[in-house]
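Bumping with the actual sequence this time:
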Amino acid sequence: MNEFDVIALGLGIKPPWKIVGQILDTNVEPHQLKIRIKADRGAEFPCPVCGRMCKAHDFQEKTWRHLNFFQHHCYITASVPRTNCPEHGVKMVKVPWARKGTRFTMLFEQAAMVLVREMPIAAASRIIGIDDKALWRIVFHYVNKAMSRLDLGQVQGIGIDETASGRGHRYVTIFIDLDRAKRPVLFVTEGKGKETIEAFKDYLESHKGKASNIARVVCDMSKAFISGSEENFENAVVVVDWFHVVQLFSKAVDEVRRLESRMNRIPHGTRWAVLKAQEGNLSDKQKGLLLELENFAKYTAKAWRIKEMLRWINRAEWYQGAKWRLTHFLNHAYSILDDNPILKPVFKALETLKRHKERILNRWGNDYTNARLEGLNGLFQAARARARGYRNVNTFITMIYLLAAPIEDVLKST
């Protein structure tokens, strides 16, 4: 075995291809190892369309960037034949070390994808020594190919939520499979309106899924999400996730606190005390603030007590018990409130709760929640950081797919 055989083995080169030369160019920085590959004279090659073995019609010289050879950049150059198939005419043959239309070998691209999964695009492009646009083209190819192979035929429960894709009012809507424990993201699209539901339905049906198979949709109280889900998934029960109910009243408490602080001096630290659970991880100072809340912020105290009563509803074990508790909660909340404008955020939250009462109660009787999607928020933040500096929303969507979609075999997408 000579030095050419060792390199050929590493590249996976087999007859009729063979290495015919190599040179280390030390006149450039970094140094470049240039490997020349050639096919045996008179060899036949399969037509890239039908596979019929054909003689070479002519040759075109091409060069690909390969994995570094120690500290040296490595390039492969080959005269690639074009076959003249009787049925399909003149076509460029496929080389075994690179996919069609790229300037990089498959081993180089696979190494690049491993880096992209672990660090921001900008950092990965510096390490492997190519510009970020070329790296994004590699990422787009592998991720899009892998996503195109998804089989959604078994999907029955979906969770829907939106997240900011950048500064300003720019959002993407994310759809997850509620039955998948790992990598549950199925689809991501720009926007947060009803059109995102329609886009997912089209995507679902183009990937062997059926809208009629969707039995549960879990989402927030967005009118667009609810109406879009009820129109596009007629067999589905729409569930308003409990996380968003708590979030609704937490925001109302904070708004009341801010309004009241304009009238009375409220001690520093009250904000975080009223947003935490009463039986949660409170500091001694926060416990003291809650005990004295009625004395220095009576309206904030009322709003906070109403928010804390939600935990009583959440502890109900069955539908009828939850329905009774929710009805009692609404009656009690209205009874302790007065018509002071400061409490308007709480009234607004209660009206929203009444409007979505049945969809909230649908939570009892099924095991689906959006907790998994909310748990993925940290991962979405990571995806945003990996794509930082690239304002195209497609880069953010692609990074979400790479990190959270069921495409563990992404590197097979040649």
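The tokens above came from a reply further down the thread. The longest helix spans residues 242-261.
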